[in-house]
Design brief:
Helix content: 25-40%
CATH superfamily of the largest domain: P-loop containing nucleotide triphosphate hydrolases
Strand content: 25-35%
CATH topology of the largest domain: Rossmann fold
Oligomer: single chain
Structural class: alpha/beta
Distance between the termini: 25 Å
Number of domains: 2
Order of helices and strands: EEEHEEHEHHHEHEHEE
Bound molecules: adenosine-5'-triphosphate, magnesium ion
Largest sheet: 6 strands, mixed
Radius of gyration: 17 Å
CATH architecture of the largest domain: 3-Layer(aba) Sandwich
Number of helices: 7
């Protein structure tokens, strides 16, 4: 699903960013990107959806070199991704259900079907009673969960999530991780950046460890909380 070859992204003037990154992620894998603040997790995720061009190297997603994608090709590529980033960008005058179903509406599914799917996801994320609320009336964690539902509503083949549990209390964080694990079991590839090592250890998956812009190690977690 993902192949990185000698990827570097260096920001002037200090050449911060990421350097010489190479790894591969198979279809359907559950992968954590872990490392302290400033390690390069967000930078790497941004390279994977071509939010920014690499300085050097190649990024291959689903057999396709995305390094030079732009315009329509880039838009089509991104439509198949589920992106969960920290700036949620929910539409303030649309309620939670509408924010989620809008993402499905634009792909041409029926109104009923997109509403049904959106509601099911919001329910799985503990927002069954808040689906009619406007974003400004939702807590940070609730908004984060709406953003997660929105990222998942079109059954993406690849989910990229940056600290998706950052605003959640421990219980909700674990519940949200369980949802990602369920989605992965349905066949989606999931890549989650987090510095919450304690939380990820409770889930089964592969951990890529980053530090100071480099990939410094890899391990597998056995998981204890992954079962539904
Ligand atoms: N747009 C930018 N311009 C300049 N430097 C940047 C830019 N984006 C990131 N950096 C630098 O690149 C390095 C990696 O940043 P990145 O945001 O990827 O870290 P991170 O692992 O996501 O950290 P955190 O856990 O705090 O989110 C940092 O030193 C950061 O200052
Ligand atoms: Mg980050």
């Amino acid at each position: 699903m993902i192949q990185l070859h000698n990827v570097s992204k260096l920001y002037p003037p200090d050449n911060t960013g990421v350097r010489d990154i190479g790894f591969q992620v198979e279809d359907g894998e559950f992968v954590f990107l872990c490392g302290p603040s400033g390690a390069g997790k967000t930078t790497l995720l941004r390279l994977l959806f071509r939010s920014e061009p690499v300085t050097e190297g190649q990024v291959i997603v689903n057999g396709r070199n995305i390094t030079r994608l732009k315009g329509k090709g880039l838009a089509a590529f991104r439509r198949r991704l589920g992106l969960v980033f920290q700036d949620f960008k929910l539409i303030p005058h649309m309620n939670a259900l509408e924010n989620v179903s809008l993402a499905a509406d634009v792909t041409g599914v029926s109104w009923r079907q997109s509403r049904r799917k959106a509601f099911a996801l919001l329910s799985e994320l503990g927002l069954k009673d808040r689906y009619g609320a406007l974003p400004p009336a939702l807590s940070g964690g609730e908004q984060q969960r709406v953003a997660i539902a929105r990222a998942l509503v079109n059954d993406p083949e690849l989910v990229l999530a940056d600290e998706p549990t950052g605003n959640l209390d421990p219980e909700m964080a674990e519940e949200t991780m369980r949802l990602f694990a369920r989605i992965q079991r349905r066949g989606t590839t999931v890549l989650i950046a987090t510095h919450d090592y304690r939380l990820l250890r409770r889930f089964e998956g592969r951990v890529l460890m980053m530090r100071q812009g480099r990939l410094v190690g890899e391990q597998y977690t056995a998981g204890a909380a992954a079962s539904p």
